[in-house]
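Q: what sequence does this backbone want?
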């Protein structure tokens, strides 16, 4: 058994920012960060475009950023949360810079501010086209300076420990469910360990891997959301899955797709169909810089009209020197495929990208389970509503990491370790006989979610998805009960849970709004707001 004052699950921008702040204020408290892969393998690492903030009050304003966020969120953003994130975000960025993160600047020293879909002004800070990677680098270097932080990689968190593990009946209506820590599978020694914590922070990232094609890395399997749901915590708005309009199309490649950041269109790139025709003017007055839900549906429609698997992104009229300087990663990736962006069109197609829903939190990052916080993509703070405005995610992660730290700092002294936690029960389980039972179920899951619960949905597709998920759930639970746990089995189990939450939330929303487009409910229902499970 291991004890730690503050436990952080996940090593992206949300978890690292929170841990760093705690370590600075509490040098005598122990902070433990767990990550199931390498410490830098996070969704943050793959965030290309940048971070949105009002850094130039002469040309921009907080009110404009707030309004852009509310418009993208399509009527169900928490307006109080939108305002606090936009206004507090500037200070958080300045803090990130003080930790060593570098953002691109003009020769005179002013920030180079880009523009992306849904934004009315240039307000996107960036570090070339690897902004997330640069912020992750700065945070990890700062983390290493604090001896009271223990960053443990290759640890798979199995479950949150609550009263349920002490023999009590815990349901959704149980008052004051408490988190006492987690059970962890140590991937180095294959042992299951208990980590007891006073306060636990979930920063486990997204769930894009439930889809066949996604911009998310392989670790994005919705572990945090699934664990909270099993622990009877509140989950909301899972139907709002954002498909990034422009992932690089590579024939035959499934899984992790290379992202072509929206900043490319912000700098002047144009979407064209298979006939070479620009088409976005047919769908929105903002053309190629409409919000992501509109652009993704437009691309989906053009592909269906023309019977193709992709459309094109045309960068040929852009300043090529500026393109290479701003987007070196994209330039090199395209060249590796034989695509010269100065002469050739880039094939792109939508891919699952971001979850706007997740673990329901208040404005301080607290979940419905006591002593458990959530921030980053796994949390649902109310900022994004029905559709995330481009480059608001890194901003949200930093702001809510800070706000969670403020509350946790006050509450820690009133919490004691729970020392009566039983060991993990492995009785009756045996080693898996064949992995095909897991890998085939995973293929089925990704296929049914992509085909039935994608950019465009209808009631019949959702019903079919539900029936197939029921079967996958039953088969996987029987396997789980008799088989020794493994990351592959646990990830499958978590993804089935997340897929169920997406489908169930989609069935509950009797309207089309934002990222949820159901052809059987084409009009918004002003009475329907959040879907809470």
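A:
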């Amino acid at each position: 058994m291991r004890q730690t004052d503050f436990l952080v699950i996940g090593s992206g921008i949300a978890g690292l920012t929170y841990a760093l702040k705690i370590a600075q204020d509490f040098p005598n408290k122990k902070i433990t960060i767990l990550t199931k892969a390498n410490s830098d393998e996070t969704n943050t690492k793959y965030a290309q475009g940048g971070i949105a903030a009002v850094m130039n009050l002469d040309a921009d304003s907080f009110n404009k950023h707030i309004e852009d966020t509310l418009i993208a969120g399509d009527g169900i953003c928490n307006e109080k949360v939108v305002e606090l994130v936009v206004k507090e975000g500037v200070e958080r960025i300045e803090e990130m810079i003080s930790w060593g993160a570098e953002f691109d600047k003009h020769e005179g020293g002013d920030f180079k501010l880009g523009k992306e879909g849904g934004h009315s002004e240039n307000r996107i800070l960036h570090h070339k086209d690897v902004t997330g990677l640069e912020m992750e680098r700065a945070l990890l270097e700062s983390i290493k300076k604090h001896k009271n932080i223990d960053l443990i990689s290759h640890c798979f968190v199995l479950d949150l420990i609550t009263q349920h593990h002490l023999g009590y009946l815990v349901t959704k209506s149980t008052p004051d469910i408490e988190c006492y820590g987690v059970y962890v599978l140590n991937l180095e020694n294959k042992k299951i360990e208990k980590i007891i914590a006073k306060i636990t922070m979930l920063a486990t990232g997204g769930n894009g891997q439930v889809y066949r094609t996604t911009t998310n890395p392989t670790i994005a399997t919705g572990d945090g959301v699934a664990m909270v749901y099993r622990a009877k915590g509140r989950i909301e708005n899972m139907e709002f899955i954002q498909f990034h309009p422009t992932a690089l199309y590579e024939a035959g490649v499934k899984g992790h797709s290379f992202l072509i950041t929206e900043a490319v269109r912000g700098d002047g790139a144009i979407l064209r169909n298979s006939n070479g025709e620009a088409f976005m003017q047919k769908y929105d007055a903002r053309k190629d810089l409409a919000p992501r839900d509109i652009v993704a549906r437009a691309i989906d429609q053009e592909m269906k009209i023309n019977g193709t698997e992709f459309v094109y992104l045309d960068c040929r009229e852009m300043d090529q020197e500026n393109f290479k300087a701003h987007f070196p990663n994209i330039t090199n990736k395209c060249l590796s495929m034989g695509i010269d962006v100065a002469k050739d069109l880039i094939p792109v197609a939508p891919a699952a990208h971001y979850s706007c829903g997740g673990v329901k939190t208040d404005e301080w990052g607290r979940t419905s389970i006591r002593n458990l916080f959530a921030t980053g993509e796994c949390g649902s703070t109310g900022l994004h509503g029905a559709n995330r405005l481009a480059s608001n995610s890194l901003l949200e992660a930093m702001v809510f990491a800070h706000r969670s730290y403020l509350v946790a700092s006050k509450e820690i002294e009133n919490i004691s370790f729970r020392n009566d936690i039983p060991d993990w029960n492995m009785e009756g389980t045996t080693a898996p006989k064949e992995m095909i039972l897991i890998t085939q179920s995973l293929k089925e899951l990704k296929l049914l979610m992509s085909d039935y619960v994608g950019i465009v949905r209808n009631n019949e597709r959702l019903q079919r998805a539900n029936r197939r998920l029921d079967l996958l759930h039953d088969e996987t639970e029987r396997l789980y009960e008799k088989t020794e746990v493994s990351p592959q089995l646990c990830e499958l189990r978590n993804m089935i849970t997340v897929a169920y939450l997406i489908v169930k939330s989609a069935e509950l929303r009797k309207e089309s709004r934002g990222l949820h487009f159901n052809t059987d409910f084409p009009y918004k229902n002003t009475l329907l707001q959040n879907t809470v499970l």
